[in-house]
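Hey all, quick one. A colleague (J.T.) asked me to put the adenosine-5'-triphosphate job into the tracker so the inputs and the structure tokens live in one place instead of scattered across chat threads. No bug as far as I know, just bookkeeping. Sequence used:
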Amino acid sequence: MTDQAFIKLDEVAKTYPTAGGAVPALSATSAIIREGEFVSIVGPSGCGKTTLLKMIGGLIDVTQGEIVLRGRQVNGPRDDVGFVFQGAVLLPWKTVLQNVLLPIEVHRPVTAKDRARALELLDVLGLANFEKRYPHELSGGMQQRVSICRALIGDPSCLLLDEPFGALDALTRENINVMFNELWRSTRKTVLLVTHSIQEAVFLSTRVLVMSRRPGEIVDDIAVDLPVVRLPEVIGSPEFGALANRIRPYFTKLAID
Ligand SMILES: Nc1ncnc2c1ncn2[C@@H]1O[C@H](COP(=O)(O)OP(=O)(O)OP(=O)(O)O)[C@@H](O)[C@H]1O
């Protein structure tokens, strides 16, 4: 990890124009994300988390301020950014392997090396031997894991994840989190994860940003100083509990304010 800004948010704000008037979604927000960090963004529903992620990914424009990713201003989608949204959208007529290779296929012919990398990614996420299956033959959790492999196949330097595991049951989610921690350790991509789960945020991250109610702003920036290898046992540790307890009051307070 270097101390240089990998992503720099400089007074970034967003207001949506709607028929009913302007909707301020995000207050002027500044932050620096360093290379190799795993940063979770938590906050109450509607506080602008998805909006922030979409602006970083260049999917929507900022209303104010500037976002710089790897030294270049973001002003549209980029190849060096991978996305995973809630509810994986896989092509039903393509196999798991073909779905993972899709981002390559639209640019150039797929090579043996690409195929080997896809199989490697599927293996880390517990999907070895599923490459010939079709999406309908997979569980929701497996489909989400395929979409993570797809987001990583082009070797983006940064991964943006919007509640990718939100629809999964608690146990599946915990298992996937363990695999995802392993994947992050082996790739050391810079990851930004939007999640509603305090446990997931603490379990996966090196840092958690807490946002206030809409129009959101960052109200806390918490370093997660847990060992880099995260196994389910860590959830019961006093250190984990202390971190979760530091975040939880924001939700209670923000919910009743
Ligand atoms: N395209 C849009 N047009 C108008 N308003 C929008 C649009 N997208 C989002 N909003 C509004 O902006 C605010 C922030 O939305 P956003 O989806 O970023 O919040 P969020 O924190 O990700 O919410 P959640 O946790 O419920 O997914 C909300 O009030 C939402 O209604």
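Adding what we noticed when we looked at it: The pocket of adenosine-5'-triphosphate is lined by residues 16, 18, 23, 25, 43, 45-51, 214 (CB under 6 Å). The domain at 1-77+160-166+191-257 is CATH 3.40.50.300 (Rossmann fold).
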